[in-house]
Write a structure and sequence with these properties.
By secondary structure, the protein is an alpha+beta fold. The chain has helices at about 1-30, 45-55, 60-70, 85-95; strands at about 30-35, 40, 75, 80-85.
């Protein structure tokens, strides 16, 4: 039972890492520079639609954005997200 639990936790961890990478890649692809300011992503679609494009649940997208904010990679919430640490996001995206 313990081995099964460890395998399940490892699989979930890998899925979340993959989802983080896909989110980082999506953010980088949709980033726009602001005059005299940082890169930002302005959401044109609902986050539910973005999550669907990434193949994850909306709750997972929210969780990943929260983690990225806690790590200092992004800032803001709502329709505009600032990309604070572009090199780290690029590394997370595997680019």
């Amino acid at each position: 039972a313990r081995l099964h639990q460890q395998q399940t936790e490892l699989a979930v961890s890998r899925l979340v890492q993959d989802a983080e990478g896909r989110c980082a890649q999506w953010l980088l692809q949709h980033a726009r520079g602001r005059e005299g300011g940082p890169f930002v992503v302005e959401f044109q679609d609902r986050k539910r639609q973005v999550a669907q494009l990434l193949g994850i649940a909306p709750e997972t997208l929210s969780r990943i954005f929260k983690l990225l904010r806690e790590r200092g990679l992004i800032a803001g919430s709502g329709r505009i997200v600032e990309l604070v640490d572009m090199p780290a996001l690029t590394q997370l995206a595997g680019a």
